[in-house]
Amino acid sequence: MSRERGIGLGSPARSAGGPGAGRLLGPLLAAGALGLAGWIAWGGSGHPSAEIVQPASVVGRATPLSLRVDAGRAGLRSIDVRLEGGGAAGTLFSKQIPADGLFGSGVRSECLDLVLDGATAGVPEGEARVVVRASDWSAIGRLRGPGEILSIPVTVDLAAPAVTPVTTTSMAQRGGSAIVVYRVTPDAVRSGVEIGKRRFPGRTGAFADPTLAVALFSLPWDAEAPIQPQVYAEDAAGNRGRAAVILPVKERRFPEEKIEVTSTFMTVKIPELLERNGMKAPADPIEAYLAVNRDVRRKSEERLREIGRVTAPRFLFDGAFVQQPDTAVGSRFAERRHYFFGGKPIDEQTHLGTDLASVKLAPVVAAARGRVLWAGDLGIYGNAVVLDHGLGLETLYAHLTDAAVAPGQMVERGATLGRSGQTGLAGGDHLHYSTMIHGQHVDPVEWWDGKWFRDRIAPTLASAPAAPNVGDEPSDPDPAVATAARSGCAAGAATAAPGTVPKAAAP
Ligand SMILES: [Zn+2]
Questions:
Q1: Hey, what CATH class is 163-252+459-476 in?
Q2: What pLDDT score was predicted for residue 45?
Q3: Position 17 pLDDT exceeds 90
Q4: Cα–Cα distance, 322 to 21 (Å, whole number)
Q5: Structural domain boundaries of the chain?
Q6: pLDDT at position 149 over 60
Q7: What does the alpha-carbon distance between residue 90 and residue 116 come to, in Å, rounded to a whole number?
Q8: Which of 105, 197, 356, 418 sits a CA distance of 20 to 30 A from 507?
Q9: What is the pLDDT of residue 101?
């Protein structure tokens, strides 16, 4: 109906002279006026509106801000986000939405997850405001142009938090572990160690000096050489400070192994594992195998990293870890495995733990004092137990027949966690044992070595007086990361910021 009226508007009135023309002119003009009125009414009020989805009160060099902008039926035409203050102004974000024919863009709502870079606006540090202007394609909106629809009072802060390493492990090796104590200014909301894209969150509160923080980290087995750790710190406005950690990292090569997959494994174990993990078994046995060895493996690692988010703010153990009693080391950490079936290569993966062989149904014991984070099915790891030992350090006990512990329980070193088995992606009864830092696998051998612990980890932790009464209650060491992941347009959470001033469209 509206569309017909619109077309009426575009048709020129036949005003040529001649008998009867006068009689036609009146109704045509009336129809035209009606059409115009209808089109104007249809298009909407010309007042787009904005709502804050994820607020910002401080704008820095990488500040997240999520907004939803809504318009009438004719749709949005433009959205501009500017920073204004101290006599200066600059554009932070700008978007034009072209018309799709006579009736406007039809885009009635846009949710924008913005990362504002306050440094680009040329606005001095201090009080300012983020101003959102928008226009729509309605007749009124076309005449009026963009109007201010939202003004958010903010503070511009472009200074990064300061972060400096104080003391660290004297030397480390690829695939191994290290620790750093660093100083960080109180404006930091998160800090830690980063190596490439990997992050190892650190925490303050462990030392009597509140500006000192500690981070345990790995020298990832697969990181690009040379491995160069850095301490980083971020404030609420997304300003980042960083500094290199001077730590010599010894390179090493990891072993290679050839594995022939048996047809019994293909036909019995693989379909069972796919079913357990809620996946349909592909008809081709090699494809089915790859679905487990690649997809279920990847999901299991993601799950492990999620489980490892929660950790105690201090080490829950003292001294070295124990290797399982009466076990022989089979496959080693970071061994590159080449899988063959019927003599043909089908896959390659890296073994991220140590296999320990003993008798069938051997008791599996805790390598050190810790808290049970997980006890249950864990993809390729089958029945598994994960222990938290504090500061992001965890151990994994996989392929168990059964688990004798429950999540939340504290266990002492040597306590029985369950019995060995071959659940998950295992061809025979053995314990797959892994050591992790924030879900990243490290070589377990170092942690079994008391001298290594005394030389490389303990002195760094003891370099500053400890804070009294640090509890062992687990918590997320980097809560800001979790908050950021949950908010924004993608999460669809509408939380209006206090102190924001929504405005009607300006004329
Ligand atoms: Zn293994």
A1: mainly beta
A2: 67
A3: no
A4: 104
A5: 2-43, 49-158+487-502, 163-252+459-476, 256-442
A6: yes
A7: 11
A8: 105
A9: 80
Q: How many residues does the chain have?
A: 507
Angle at 100 between CA 96 and CA 102, to 5 degrees: 115
Distance 370 CA to ligand 1 centre (A): 22
Separation of CA 443 and ligand 1 centre (Å): 13
- Find the 131 Cα to ligand 1 centroid distance in Å: 56
- pLDDT over 90, % of the chain: 70
Q: Which fold has domain 256-442?
A: Glucose Permease (Domain IIA) (2.70.70)
Structure tokens at 209: 């000096």
Better-predicted residue by pLDDT, 487 or 315:
315
Q: Which two structure tokens, joined as six digits, stand for 227?
A: 């491995």
Q: How many CB atoms lie within 10 A of CB 499?
A: 10
CATH of 49-158+487-502 given 3.20.20.30, 3.40.50.2000, 2.60.40.10, 3.40.50.300: 2.60.40.10
pLDDT tens track for 232-276: 999 988 899 999 999 999 999 999 999 999 988 888 889 999 998
SS3 assignment, position 256: strand
Interval between CA 87 and ligand 1 midpoint (Å): 64
Q: Do the bridges between strand 147-156 and strand 58-59 make them parallel or antiparallel, or are there none, so unpaired?
A: parallel
Tokens standing for 418? 């369950």
Ligand 1 centroid from CA 371, angstroms: 23
Tell me the β-bridge partners of 355.
432
Q: pLDDT band at residue 479, thresholds of 50, 70 and 90? A: low
Ligand 1 centroid distance, CA of 355 (Å): 5
Question: 351: CA distance to ligand 1 center in Å?
Answer: 6
Spatial contact of 266 and 185, defined as CB atoms under 8 Å apart: no
Ramachandran class of 101: left when φ > 0, alpha when ψ lies in -120 to 50, beta otherwise: left
Q: Find the 458 Cα to ligand 1 centroid distance in Å.
A: 29
d(CA 331, ligand 1 centre) in Å: 7
432 Cα to the center of ligand 1, angstroms: 4
Q: State the first-to-last Cα distance of the chain, in angstroms, to the nearest integer.
A: 30
Cα(288) to ligand 1 centroid in Å equals 20
Is the model's pLDDT at 174 over the cut of 90? Answer: yes
CA–centroid distance, 98 to ligand 1, in Å, is: 56
Cα 329 to Cα 322: distance, rounded to the nearest angstrom: 13
Q: Which helix (H) or strand (E) holds 140?
A: helix 139-144
Segments in 242-284 forming alpha helices (H): 263-264, 270-276
- DSSP reduced 3-state for 446: helix
Ligand 1 center from residue 402 Cα (angstroms):
17
Residue 287 banded pLDDT, cuts 50, 70, 90:
very high
